[in-house]
Amino acid sequence: MKNYKMAWRNLWRNRRRTVITAASVFFAVFFALIMRSLQLGTYDSMYKNIIESYSGYIQVQDEEFWENKIVDNVFKNTAGLRERIKEDKNVEDIIPRFESFALASSGSRSKGVMVMGIDPEKEKLLSDVQDRLVRYRLTDGAIDAIKAEDIPSYLDKNLDLFRGNSYSSDGRLQIDLGIKDDDEEALMPLLGKHAGVENSYFSTGENEALVGDRLSRYLGLTRGDTLILLGQGYHGHTAAGKYVIAGIVNIPNPDLDNKIVYLPVDVCQTLYYAPGMLTSMVVHLEENDDDAIEGTLERLDSNLDSPYRVLGWKEMNETLVQQLEADDKSGMIMIGILYLVIAFGVFGTVLMMTAERRREFGVLVAIGMQKTKLAGVMVYEMLYIGMLGILSGVAVAIPAIIYGYYHPIHFSASLAKVWEEYGFEPVMEFQWIDSYFISQSVVVAVIVLVAVIYPLVKIRKMKEVNALKA
User: Fold this and answer.
1) Cα→Cα distances 361→21, 75, 378, 381, 464, Å
2) Quick one: pLDDT at residue 370?
3) For position 110, what pLDDT does the model report?
4) What is the distance between the alpha carbons of residues 242 and 425, in angstroms, rounded to a whole number?
5) Composition of the chain by helix, strand, coil, percent to 5
6) Is the confidence at residue 65, as pLDDT, over 60?
7) How confident is the model at residue 46 (pLDDT cuts 50, 70, 90)?
8) In this predicted structure, what is the pLDDT of residue 462?
9) How far is CA 376 from each of CA 356, 371, 456, rounded to the nearest angstrom?
10) How far apart are CA 56 and CA 249, in angstroms?
11) Is 292 helix (H, G, I), strand (E, B) or coil?
C-alpha cells in the first residue's frame, strides 16, 4: 500500500489523537493570523488618520518649501501645471493648499497657529473637514444639565470620564459613553439638547474660518466669534486679517487639532498677499496601495522639472513612519514569542503521539515493515495533520477578520481615554486578507515540519524488543 494512503487511514484509526494534534496547529494559525491582522490594521488606521487629515499621499511643492516653510517658497497655480499632473493615469484630481503660520488672537489670549487655505469642495476628497465639524461638546454646564435628568448610573460615571471631550458623530459619542442600544432612543435626544453644538461649513470667498477643537477651547472661541490672525505675507508684506468663526472641527491628530485654522484658499491667498499662489497641491489618487503610490511618484517626478518637487507620504511623515516601524519590530517580537509557544505546543502533541504509538511502531517493524517506510508514513501523517490544522485555522480566521474589518474594535470608557491621551484614535482595526496570510501559514507549516523530526529520530533509533514491551 502506498505510504500516503496508509498515513491517511492511520489518522482516522484514532480520531481523538488526530483531532488533538490538528487542533494545536489550528489554534497556532488562527491566533497568528488574528494578531497580525490586528497589528497591521491598527498601523494602517494610524497612517490613514495622519495622511487623510493633513498631508495626503502625494504633494507637489516648490523645491525649497519642505525644508524652509516660508510664504516666499510658493509657486504659481497655473492651468499648464494642473494639466501635466492630471495626465498621469492614477491621478483623479488636485486639491490646492496654501499653508503658513500666524499668531491667532481672541480676547486676551493668543497662540501660534497653522493656517491652512483649502478649497471647500475639493477638500472633501481628502480630509473632509465638513464631516469633522463638532456636533456634541461635553462641557461642565452640559454635563451638569444632563445629570439633572433621569439617566442610567453608567452614563453618569462615563460623563465624568469624558468631561471636556468633543464629538463629530453620534456613533463615537455612543461608544465612549457606553450607551446601550435599548437606551439610545431615550438618551440621544437628551444629549443633543444639552451637549449639542451648532456649527456650519464655509464657502469660497467667505471671510470665515474653521478652527480645531482644542485650539477653540484654548482661545475661548465658539461659532460667531471673531478671530484675528497676524503673520508675515509674501515678499515681506504684513499679513493681518479678521475672520468670523463658522465652525469648530475635531481633528483625530491632537497636535494638529491644537493649532489648526482653516480658511478658504482664496481668502488665505489674500491674507498673505499671494493671489494665485499655492504652497502645495495634494494629488488625489484613484489607487493608493503602496505599488500604485510608488509608481505615481516616479512618473510625476520625471514629468515635473524644477522648481517643482514631488513628495510621498512617507517622506512627509518620516517621524511617524519611524515610530511605527519600531513598534512593528516590537510587534514581531511578540509574534515570535507566540510562535515559540506554538512550537512547544505542537512539539508536545507530537511527543505525546509518538510515546502513545511506541508499541505500535515496534509491532510493525517486528512483522517486517521497514523503518524507512514507517518513517515515510509518519511524515505523511504529520503533513496531513499540518494541512488540516492550517486550512481549518485559515478557514475560521477569514470570517473573523472580515467581520473585524467591517466592525473595528472601539475602546470605550477609561481605555479609550488612555489612547486619546497618547494621541491615538481609540480603535483597533483589522487588515483585509493579504499576503500576511501566506507568511503566517508558512511559518506554522515550518514548525510542523521541524516537529516531525522527533518521531523520525525515535523510529530510526528504536529497539524492537524494548518497543514491544512499552
Assistant:
1) 18, 81, 10, 14, 8
2) 78
3) 92
4) 33
5) 55, 20, 25
6) yes
7) confident
8) 74
9) 18, 8, 9
10) 18
11) helix
